[in-house]
Design brief:
Blueprint lengths: L5 E10 L6 E5 L4 E5 L2 H21 L14 E6 L6
Antiparallel strand pairs: 1-2, 1-4, 2-3
Length: about 80
C-alpha cells in the first residue's frame, strides 16, 4: 500500500438504551465506540480504527478490507505511513 493508502469500512449505528449515547461500530474490524452524538461517535471510532490498524501492522497481521457493496455510511481511514 502507498504512503497515503486509505480503506473504507461500513459503519453501523445504534443508540444505547441506558445512556442514550450513539454507538458506532465497524463490524469488519470488530470495534465500536460511542459518543453523545453521531459526530462524536465517529470521531472516537476513527481514532480507534487508526489505532487498531496500526497494531495490526506492528503485529504483521493483514489489514481487513471490505467491498463497498452495502448501502449506508462508510468511514474512510487513512493508514499510518509505516503501514505501506
Amino acid at each position: 500500500m502507498g504512503v497515503s493508502a486509505t480503506v473504507h469500512y461500513h459503519v453501523v449505528f445504534a443508540r444505547d438504551p441506558e445512556t442514550a449515547s450513539v454507538v458506532a461500530e465497524i463490524p469488519a474490524l470488530q470495534i465500536a465506540d460511542y459518543g453523545a452524538d453521531v459526530p462524536e461517535a465517529l470521531e472516537r471510532l476513527q481514532a480507534m480504527a487508526i489505532f487498531h490498524l496500526d497494531c495490526l501492522v506492528q503485529e504483521r497481521k493483514p489489514i481487513p478490507t471490505e467491498e463497498r457493496e452495502e448501502e449506508g455510511f462508510y468511514l474512510r481511514v487513512t493508514l499510518p505511513p509505516h503501514a505501506a
